[in-house]
Design goal:
By secondary structure, the chain is mostly helical. The chain has 20 helices and 2 strands. The protein starts with 54 loop residues before the first strand and ends with a helix.
């Protein structure tokens, strides 16, 4: 009933056909201008009714009243869950509201992340990078650089403060803008149509990601509280985390603390102007919104095909279940690792095949080091790929760039690696006593959304790429190497299911599976890109499109 006691919707249920603990759903038409008004939910039964409804003594919403007629109960409210569907005007209003509240936070966060990557790109960049690849690599290089900066500042006995970070921020951006002015802003010039199209894709992704958390005040799940604790300790000490004091008496904790240096930097620069829980929530969705940029860069470097890169970027932006679902667990570190991994795949392949090998190996070493500090598991998933690419580089007699990248990455993380290799920590990292059900395959993901369809499409894409290679039309070694890598990851993380030893400790099928959206998008993009090329040679209309 509406506030004027007019009937909006009604529903009848057969007591004999209703199951125990069944959820009863009542749908009604959208109610415009309903905010703040009192609506009535009325339940009644016939004389022979055997059904009952759950009641509780605490109200889930303010100003909720439960009254009875001919029933005795001490409950004060029904157990109910309200769900609503956004209309266009409400969605626009919510996005405008959140942008007004946190637009400055998002802008400052992006400026902080991009800065070190843009500075690095002034000295290390590929010969044939397009503008979007440049910005994608600058973005992920920035994500990888901040943990390394904080780690070495701590090792040298220093600490970051707000004024020091502002000094680096102003000088860094000032120098980069001066360089762009000298060079005619070459890394901004591109086709206006393509630029607007990609910005539109990022904008739509941003809107979808932030609408998904419109009713959340902080990230859900236990991971979010851990991230908040680590960030709080990092802010208080101004150093790369070494223990949880003064909050917990834990020395040398085993975790990846790289990501947390980024929100800690923002909070130090703003004197914690925004609540930490909001900073982490906004950071999560901002990083997720930029996954298309990172995947575009990695796919373009891997396949050299712009269309493949565009499709891969679109897939991770909207139709894929991951990475958008990461928000449900508050997986800030894993999404950061996935962003770095996306471009690292393309760059590793390039120097492994001898492309831009003299210029790019320091960048590969930096990204790999940053990935190690950001997320151990995602880094462990990278290891089989880099070993495979290294074997390929030996075949082509070009192993030196990857060796140099490995040495540089090892040096950058050596102090942290030594800590993890200490006797009392190593057994915890390499422990193979897996709890029951720890490594079960996450079948629930396959029944969600379009996951099954996209995996079938991936299988078809792999078969098509193999056929193209056998016909010698196209060199598909790169995307097929990703398919081989995905298969190896299944064997390495689920070896005990087929009688093999566990070769990737402290990982499981769940954490591996939810990381596969990056190579999955790249493989589909590569295959569809080649189909498009085949069709374009056969019909003028495809060329026009």
């Amino acid at each position: 009933l509406d506030p004027e006691a007019n009937l909006i919707a009604e529903q009848s249920y057969n007591a004999l056909a209703t199951k125990h603990n069944q959820t009863i759903t009542l749908r009604f038409p959208p109610q415009t201008a309903a905010a703040g008004k009192q609506y009535t939910l009325q339940l009644s039964g016939t004389a022979g009714n055997q059904l009952s409804v759950w009641g509780y003594s605490l109200a889930p919403q303010d100003q909720t009243v439960l009254s009875y007629a001919g029933v005795e109960s001490r409950a004060q409210v029904l157990y109910y869950v309200g769900k609503y569907q956004l209309n266009g005007a409400t969605a626009v209003g919510m996005v405008a509201r959140d942008t007004g509240r946190y637009g400055l936070l998002v802008l400052l966060l992006l400026l902080i992340i991009f800065l070190p990557g843009l500075l690095i790109a002034e000295f290390i960049h590929g010969e044939n990078w397009d503008v979007l690849s440049y910005w994608g690599i600058a973005f992920t290089s920035g994500l990888a650089s901040w943990p390394i900066l904080w780690l070495w500042m701590t090792l040298l006995g220093g600490r970051f403060t707000g004024w020091l970070l502002w000094l680096l921020f102003i000088v860094g951006w000032g120098w980069w803008m001066w360089r762009q002015w000298q060079n005619g802003f070459q890394w901004i010039r591109m086709s206006p149509l393509r630029l607007m199209a990609f910005l539109l894709l990022l904008l739509i992704t941003y809107i979808v990601r932030f609408l998904a958390v419109r009713d959340l005040d902080f990230l859900p799940w236990v991971d979010a509280s851990r991230h908040a604790l680590i960030t709080a300790v990092t802010i208080q000490s101004g150093q790369f985390l070494q223990n949880y004091e003064p909050y917990l008496p834990i020395q040398q904790p085993i975790y990846h603390f790289g990501f947390h240096t980024i929100p800690a930097s923002l909070q130090l620069m703003t004197n914690s102007y925004w609540p930490l829980e909001k900073v982490l929530l906004v950071t999560m969705q901002t990083l997720s919104s930029l996954m298309p940029l990172a995947v575009y860069s990695g796919t373009r470097l891997l396949t050299k095909h712009r269309g493949a890169a565009w499709l891969a970027a679109f897939l991770v932006a909207l139709p894929f279940f991951f990475p958008a679902y990461y928000t449900t667990w508050g997986r800030l570190t894993q999404i950061t690792g996935g962003l770095i991994m996306a471009t690292l795949i393309g760059l590793t392949w390039q120097i492994g095949r001898g492309l831009n090998r003299r210029r790019l190996w320091p960048l590969v070493g930096l990204l790999a080091a940053g990935l190690f500090l950001v997320h151990f598991r995602v880094f462990s998933f990278y290891i089989p790929l880099v070993i495979w690419v290294f074997l390929i580089s030996i075949f082509y007699k070009r192993p030196r760039p990857l060796l140099m990248a490995g040495i540089l990455g090892g040096i950058l993380v050596l102090p942290r690696l030594i800590q993890l290799l200490q006797p009392r920590i190593t057994p915890m990292l390499t422990n193979t006593n897996i709890p029951e059900n720890y490594n079960n395959f996450p079948t629930g993901y396959l029944t969600t959304g379009w996951e099954q369809f996209f995996w079938v499409l991936t299988a078809v894409a792999i078969i098509f790429l193999i056929a193209q290679s056998l016909s010698k039309r196209v060199d598909n070694f790169a995307p097929l190497s990703l398919a081989l890598w995905m298969g190896l990851l299944f064997l390495l993380t689920a070896g005990e299911l087929v009688g093999l030893p566990i070769l990737l400790p402290q990982t499981n099928l769940n954490s591996m599976y939810i990381s596969l959206f990056v190579p999955e998008a790249m493989i589909i993009g590569a295959a569809v890109g080649q189909v498009w090329q085949l069709l374009s040679h056969r019909h003028w209309l495809v060329d026009v499109l």
